[in-house]
Amino acid sequence: MKFPVKIFLFGSLSAALIAFQWYDPYFSGESLKGVRVLVTGASTGIGEQVAYHYARLGAQIVITARRAHALNKVSLKCQDLGAQKILYIPADMASPAEANRVVEDAEEQLEGLDYIVLNHIGPSPYRMWDGDVDHMRWLMQVNFHSYVQMTQKALPALEKSMGSIVVVSSLIGKLCSPYALPYIATKFAVNGFFGSLQHELAMKQSNVSVSVCILGFIDTDSSMEKTKGYIDMRPYPAREAAWQVVKAGALRQSEVFYPWYTYYCTLIRDWFPYFRDLVIRNSYNYIP
């Protein structure tokens, strides 16, 4: 009887784990009406879609990215969608001074801050690493150090509002893969820092939440262009990925995964290393 009992217990635990992962918690959109939000990297892709979701829910929004003309287009659409307030700040996150300025300006314009959504990334070629250390240093400033700076700058305002830090990260910040070494290094840094920050804020009994959003292959224009010919996978919609990001912050979830397979990839990452590496290598085409 021992063997069937073990199978039953294993099956029950597996079913419970799957059910827990597929459980989709509900939140009322009304809870985000009038909230003060800063969204970075909002001129295109996931950040743009995040801004549109907040606009539909009647939030007060500041968006930022490098290109002023693109931000202007996004802000006009946010206005049409119902944002209570929409402002944009062109800024280059390669500059530490710019990262600080954006948070200061957003807090001043919105008279406080309830959410900061860190989403921006710097451009990086999709190819085998060519040994360019300078590019990796630059990308680390844009994709990681600026996140840390903006978090440090925003924390006092978020403490006052019982606010949330929402971090857009990637599956390849948890799972090593080829062709994007500088980008992957920055995402591993992001996951490590903000995962650890969650613990420190909890230990200090801070009322600020940190949500880390682990995203897979998403159909943004940038992603599709860079990975064309490299990846044999179906991309998932940026609009839905952005909605998961908004929900994560509203529900104060510590970690969310989208699409479905990202959770299971991280779950079995260290269980079956041979098959893990086999799947990774078979998901890409070798291009020297």
TrEMBL record:
The keyword 4Fe-4S does not apply. Belongs to the short-chain dehydrogenases/reductases (SDR) family. Gene3D superfamilies: NAD(P)-binding Rossmann-like Domain. This is Hydroxysteroid 11-beta-dehydrogenase 1-like protein. GO terms for molecular function: oxidoreductase activity. The keyword Plastid does not apply. SUPFAM superfamilies: NAD(P)-binding Rossmann-fold domains (SSF51735). It comes from the Eukaryota. Residues 1-19 form the signal peptide. Keywords: Oxidoreductase, Signal. Coiled coil: none annotated. It comes from Electrophorus electricus (Electric eel).
